[in-house]
Amino acid sequence: MTSHISSPTPQEPVLILGAGLMGRLLGVALARAGHAVRLLDAGTPDGSGGAARVAAAMLAPLAESAVTEPNVVAMGQYALVRWPELLRTLAAPVFFQQAGTLVLWHRQDAPEAHRFRAILGGVQQALPSLPHPQAVDAAAIAELEPALAQRFHQGLYLPEEGQLDNRELLQALNQTLAELGAEVQWQTAWTLEQAQEHQRRQGGWVLDCRGLGAQGNWNMPAGGLRGVRGEVVRLHAPDVTLQRPTRMLHPRYPIYIAPKPGHIFVIGATEIETNDLTPASVRSTLELLSAAYAVHPGFGEARILELNSQCRPTLADNLPAVREAAPRVLQINGLYRHGFMISPAVADAVLEHMHSGTQTLAQRLGLRFDTLATTATA
Ligand SMILES: Cc1cc2nc3c(=O)[nH]c(=O)nc-3n(C[C@H](O)[C@H](O)[C@H](O)COP(=O)(O)OP(=O)(O)OC[C@H]3O[C@@H](n4cnc5c(N)ncnc54)[C@H](O)[C@@H]3O)c2cc1C
Q1: Is 86 contained in some domain?
Q2: By residue range, what is the domain housing residue 132?
Q3: Mean of the per-residue pLDDT values for the chain?
Q4: Residue nearest to atom 21 of ligand 1 (CA)
Q5: What is the CA(312)–ligand 1 centre distance, in A?
Q6: Which of 90, 131, 136, 272 is buried most, with the most CB atoms less than 10 Å from its CB?
Q7: Does 4 reside within a domain?
Q8: Which of 122, 24, 129, 126 is nearest to 340 (CA)?
Q9: Is the CB of 213 under 6 A from ligand 1?
Q10: 221 against 328, higher pLDDT
Q11: 181 in the Ramachandran plot: left (φ > 0), alpha (ψ -120 to 50) or beta?
Q12: Does 231 lie in the same domain as 151?
């Protein structure tokens, strides 16, 4: 299922606005392919100002199939193969694993589980190559996650799902960009118009990867780019050991717990329709922490390292899109809650377009890719 876009020959300069997840990933791929890459970012090297820094970075196409379309699930499956290949080429190691997702529920929430299973069944029909969810009982849960033994009696194990350490990844991408000689300017906020003016003088490509920062440039009839706020707690819980992301089904307070190396846990779930970037609310924090405590009392003694809120860049249909706004100007956005899960697929599709003018991969995966030619004939 891997795609290997062939590396081209003499390369034009590329200006990338936004060095969050998508900008850094594309910057590395293009610098490696021989382009002179320049990245401008409004924030700082640690990723402040973007969604990528606070994300849980779960790579869970099957679990997410309950809330997204089959094409995003297909991009997620593709990316699960591509991530290990990409990570191997970076200048520093990045935690990555594919130990599956465990989905649990309390007895009283069985109807929610029934609903979830029905949705998974439907997606499985649309994409028969997806790994099959496995029903697990108390003994199987205890074997998968000894820390949860006796606490849950039924659940679903979703094999092959992955996760990575987002902050290690952002740092490793920075290091790799430096090694490849890419120029990165932090605390530099540009508009798309400024970039196009630059292009008129210098030539080359412009890639707009500003996430929510590109809001003014995505006004479409169906609606523009919006923020979907998420709040996450980052805990250090030495008394809790989990091997894989765990999701709790609940009609009002579903949560995920994503373990990172060193007994660090990212716990989140909230989805609020707003561009509000103010700090996490007391209500959300109480809900997240209570739900985590109900999963394992060891979280009661955990230390709260961070309480974060950020907005996921989201288009009207909640799907990602690439748009050719002008010749050699590509806008890449709408990664919503799936940036880590799908970005290798989106990056490969962008590279294919830049190097061969085709959109084969985008078409295969169902990624919306509007070129000037397709827009003119639509
Ligand atoms: C709480 C939360 C949890 C998440 N969990 C997951 C998960 O488990 N799995 C998953 O796959 N995805 C997850 N995501 C989604 C993921 O983080 C995003 O989809 C992804 O970060 C989007 O990538 P991006 O590069 O488009 O935008 P961003 O990562 O937001 O980067 C945009 C960059 O553009 C910069 N910028 C903005 N304006 C300008 C400007 N004018 N000029 C220059 N630079 C500018 C910003 O500083 C930023 O660095 C989560 C997101 C949130 C908020």
Answers
A1: no
A2: 101-159+226-314
A3: 92
A4: 52
A5: 6
A6: 136
A7: no
A8: 24
A9: yes
A10: 328
A11: left
A12: yes
Do 129 and 262 lie in one domain? The reply is: yes
Residue type, 231: E
Please report, as a single letter, which amino acid is at residue 185: Q
Please tell me if the CB atom of residue 313 comes closer than 6 angstroms to any atom of ligand 1: yes
Kindly state whether residue 82 falls inside one of the protein's structural domains: no
Parallel/antiparallel/unpaired status of strands 226-236 and 272-273: antiparallel
Q: Is the pLDDT of residue 231 over 80?
A: yes
**Does a structural domain hold residue 208?**
yes
Burial, 142: exposed, middle or buried (Cβ in 10 Å; 0-12, 13-18, 19+)? middle
Q: Which amino acid is at 23?
A: G
- DSSP symbols for 23-40: HHHHHHHHHHTT--EEEE
- Domain containing residue 372: CATH number: 3.50.50.60
Residue type, 282: V
Ligand 1, atom 13, lies closest to the CA of 337
| 338 CA closest ligand 1 atom index | 11
- Same domain for 308 and 243: yes
Is beta strand 101-104 parallel, antiparallel or unpaired with respect to 246-248? parallel
Residue 341 and residue 58 in contact, taking contact as beta carbons nearer than 8 Å: yes
**Ligand 1 atom at shortest distance from the alpha carbon of 21:** 25
Name the domain count of the chain: 2
- List the one residue out of 39, 13, 17 whose CA is nearest residue 207: 17
Q: In this predicted model, what pLDDT tens digit does every residue of 20-71 receive, in sequence order?
A: 999 999 999 999 999 999 999 999 999 998 999 999 999 999 999 988 999 9
Environment class of residue 261 by beta-carbon count within 10 Å: exposed (0-12), middle (13-18) or buried (19+)? exposed
Distance 80 CA to ligand 1 centre (A): 19
